[in-house]
Amino acid sequence: MGDGVRKSGTVSRRQEDAMEDLEAVNLAADWADISQGLRKDLGHQLHSQWIKPIQVGGFSEDTGTLDLFLPTEFSANWVQDRFHDRLSLAWKIARSEVRHVKISVHPGRRQMPELRLSDGRRAANDGVDASALGLAAGTIGEHGFTSSVGLDPSLTFAAFVTGETNILACNAAQRMAATETPQFSPLYIKAATGQGKTHLMHSIGHAYLQAHPRARIFYCSAERFMVEFVQALKQNQMIEFKARLRSFDLLLVDDIQFIIGKASAQEELLYTIDALLAEGKRLVFAADRAPQALDGVEPRLLSRLSMGLVADIQAADIELRRKILESKLTRFAPLEVPGDVIEFLARTITRNVRELVGGLNKLIAYAQLTGQEVSLQLAEEQLTDILSANRRRITIDEIQRTVCQFYRIDRSEMSSKRRARAVVRPRQVAMYLAKVLTPRSYPEIGRKFGGRDHSTVIHAVRLIEDLRKRDADMDGDVRSLLRQLES
To answer: CDD domains attached here (predicted)?
Structure first.
């Protein structure tokens, strides 16, 4: 009996854990929708700087409180002051059970330390001092090299998948981390959101520390640089700030576009760049635009940022997207993901790599938590938010042309009065796809098909919907056409 009780308790705990995981997946899906809406309202820059770093925490059913976490106290206070009401309203619309939204620093994160000397007596390469400052300092333990503070251990060159669109940036990053002196400095990595620039910066840090275990590295975002600059200014610690900043062997500054407009900080960064370059140190910057496209940056700083190598990461092409997905599958073995699902994700999620990997993770998590097999239908059902955000605008003319090519009929048959089955069925499929893939109304679709009545379009849509459920061949045709049109 005791074993039965223990077994029942284990099952219950597993069920509770599964429910918690499923709730986390659902919260993440809701946040993806909310974040996308806020991006449209606030614009790319404000969204990237303040909304994008938010992590969704737990939800308390008893109090109706949802926790939102940010990485620093500064950013948490900023979002609380300026966006709390908007975030609360968005969550209440998405989930009626959310009554309160609490914005705070993630309890697992360290508070933002001050970038200053302790008392001047500590050795320059002391590991404790570096950790206290949030600096990257390599250490050699009994098992060899260990990861550094401030660098994500999963973001290495080994985990970076290369293709034609990112090979230049990857090779330049590896050269920057090599033992020999690089031919160029600074390295400026330009890439849109989610294409891998931050991954390369962390990879440089790891590789450089492996080659130079006692090296001093500072990795930060432009926001972090700004916060610590202001802190040093307020606390009359600018001499210490400058001395510490210019003592690094490798300086990595991410999202440099957010330093725009801060004249005093720009000046300090300019002097730091000059000092480090004069000593042969290495500098890497990353931004979502080229140096010449940075508004509000004074000419002297602009020239320093662009004087080395500007390496561009283009949007991942379909071959690279396939390689990235296949590389991630090893983490989920022995779970099987059919090839048609990988192809569907690679062709459909095209905006950035982060969304692509996030879509795969969400799909597999849902399948594992619900006990379902990963399939094309499950992907279409569970990734609607990501798929709709990536779906390009498709026209009825494009649908008609694709359907006619698929069924090998003349384009004029889309508007003809012929009633032969070989013509009627493709026409009905085209009407169905027009309703699914475009925002056009039934009457608007009817006019595109030879001025047909809206009731004819409604009949076609319902007929194809029914046939997809009963006829595997018809369902296969429609799926194939959807893939062609959405690729």
So the answer is: Bac_DnaA_C (cd06571)
pTM over 0.85: no
CATH 1.10.8.60 residue ranges for the chain: 318-389
Interacting residues of 340 by C-beta distance below 8 A, sequence separation 6+: 376
Check residue 330 and give its pLDDT.
78
The reply, when asked if residue 139 is annotated as ligand binding, is: no
Nearest residue to 75 (alpha-carbon basis) of 32, 105, 110, 99 = 105
Residue 194 annotated as lining a ligand binding site: yes
Beta strands 136-137; 216-221: pairing state: antiparallel
Q: Where in the chain is the domain with CATH 3.30.300.180?
A: 1-109
Q: What is the CATH code for 396-486?
A: 1.10.1750.10
CATH topology of domain 1-109: GMP Synthetase; Chain A, domain 3 (3.30.300)
128-313 folds as Rossmann fold (3.40.50)
The reply, when asked if residue 57 is annotated as ligand binding, is: no
Question: Which class would CATH give 318-389?
Answer: mainly alpha
Cβ 354 vs Cβ 321: under 8 Å: no
* 234 annotated to a ligand binding site: no
Cβ atoms of 438 and 396 closer than 8 Å: yes
Structure tokens at 191: 């890439």
| pLDDT above 70: percentage of residues in the chain | 84
Sign (positive/negative) of CA torsion 115, 118, 124, 126? negative
Q: Please name the amino acid found at residue 258.
A: F
pLDDT of 32 reads: 83
Amino acid at 266: Q
d(CA 96, CA 30): 12
Quickly list H helices, 212-333.
222-234, 238-245, 263-278, 299-305, 318-329
The residue-averaged pLDDT of 424-429 equals 95
Question: Span 157-166, mean pLDDT?
Answer: 92
Q: Which residue has the tokens 């085209």?
A: 430
